[in-house]
Structure formats: C-alpha cells, structure tokens
Amino acid sequence: MLESFLITSRETLEASLVVGIVLAYLSRTNNHHFKKSVYYAIAAGILASIAAAFGFVFIATEFEGVGEQVFEGTTMLLGSFLITTMILWMMKQRHLAKKIEGKVEKSLAGENQFLSHLGIFLLIFIAIIREGIETVIFLNAVKYESGISFISGALGVVAAVAVGFVFFMSTRKINLRKLFNVSSILLILFAAGLATHGMHEFVEAKIIPGIMTPLYDSSNILSETSIIGSFMKGLFGYVSDPSLLEVLAYISYLAVIFILYRRISLQKSATE
Q: What is the rounded CA–CA span in Å between residue 100 and residue 15?
C-alpha cells in the first residue's frame, strides 16, 4: 500500500512542480494567454499516459510460463533502474525553478506565437508523459511483487498535487529538499527490493543460477505472509528464504547507491 502511495506521489509531485513553475512564471510575466497551452499539454500528457498503461497491460497478458517470469523480472529490474535514475537526477538538481523558467523564457523569446505555444506545450507534455510512463512501469513492478493499492495510489496523486499547489501559493515555504530526501531513502530501499525480486524471477526461470538456494530461512521468525512480513516484502523487498545471488544483489545495489550519493554530495559541496 505504502509503495503505491510513494510512487504516485513522487512522480506526480515532480510533474506538478514543473506545471506550477511554468504557470507561475507566465503569471509573473503577464503571459496569461499562453496558459491554455499548459492546460492542453496536461490533458494530452494524461491521455497518453493512460494509453501507455493499457498498452503495457496488453503486452503483459501475452506472456505465460517462463516468458511471464522473464517479463516480470525485466519489469522489476527496469523499474529499479528508473527509480534509481530518478532519485539521482533529483539529487543533482539545484535551482530547478530557474532552469524551467529559463526554458519557458526561450520559448517566449521567438516572434512566432505558434512556436512559442508549441514550445510550452512540449515542455509540459514531455514532463507529464515521462512521469506517466515511469509510473506505469513502477506500478506494474509493484503488482508483480506485492500488488497495487489503487486507493493509496490515488491518495498519492492527490497529496502531490496539494503539496505542489501549497508550495507555490505560500511563497514556496515548504522544504522540498527534506521531503525529497525522506522519500528518496524509502524509494532506494524499494528499488533494492525490486532489483532483488527481479533477479529472483530470472532464477525461477532458470536463466541464471541462484547460488546456494536458499541461503537461509527466516520464515519461522518473520513469515512473508504475516502483516509485518508482507509490509516488509512490498516496501523493502524482504524475502524469508533468499538465494545467495539475491542477497548479493541487494547489498551490491545499496553499496553502489551509497557511492553515487557520496560522489554527488561531494560535487555539490565543492560548487557551493
């Protein structure tokens, strides 16, 4: 349940921030007539995301047996990769508003009104369709691992839109850095779990060896079917009887993320 909320809230928040920054800039520069391009882009981006969701589900239903295991494993690994790149990208972003406002300013600089409208439309559309497609992949990966909670997913969207609205209506007093830091930690652990379960699917399909399967069995202490166990499995990738390969995948993922995090932090400190 929490993982669905995390994914939809984080993805929607990123898209809503872009939309909010663009609308705020257009209002501040008295370019209100360009707002309709923003609204058209929002509608087009949402429709395109819904179409992508139906397309993904249609493709997924075509697989059976080993093919299904490979597809599920690939989806989980792809989801883990995209979550990781999303987190690392957000860590590198400083002065996000200025960067987006700069793109809008370039779109408005031309004398051709059509090209200006098109530039703003594409900026918003690409931001929304990118987040939409990532959300589709993430939620499908969650479905394979622990199931999707549509209620918590919808609440995540509502919460993100609310945060984005309050952020721009209250002179940007919300500390988004802290908000992103907390969600990033949870998403890193979630992505590590996805990577591990993705490897598990490939082991189940006998494409790669599990190496010492199982390495241990903790089901007597904490079963995956228990309330706490199912929560830990869905959010953090807990497995009661993992193979050595799955344990190594989990540890290696966290180690690589820690190294990249330290490198980005040092780079940001050096430039400040």
A: 12
Per residue of the chain (272 residues), give pLDDT as tens.
566 777 777 778 778 878 888 888 888 888 888 899 999 999 999 999 889 888 887 887 777 778 888 888 888 888 888 888 877 777 766 566 677 778 888 888 766 788 888 888 998 998 898 888 888 887 777 666 555 556 766 777 787 777 777 666 654 555 666 666 777 787 888 888 888 888 888 888 888 887 887 888 888 888 877 878 777 776 677 888 888 888 898 999 999 988 888 887 777 666 65
**Domain count of the chain?**
1
For CA atoms 152, 156, 158, 162, the dihedral sign is positive
Per the structure, the complete domain to which residue 231 belongs is given by: 2-271
Amino acid at 19: V
Cα distance between residue 148 and residue 4, in whole Å: 6
- Residue pair 230/224 in contact (Cβ under 8 Å)? The answer is yes
Which pTM was predicted?
Answer: 0.69
Distances (CA, A) of 33 to 26, 118, 120, 121, 220: 9, 13, 12, 13, 64
Residues 6+ apart with CB under 8 A from 94: 268
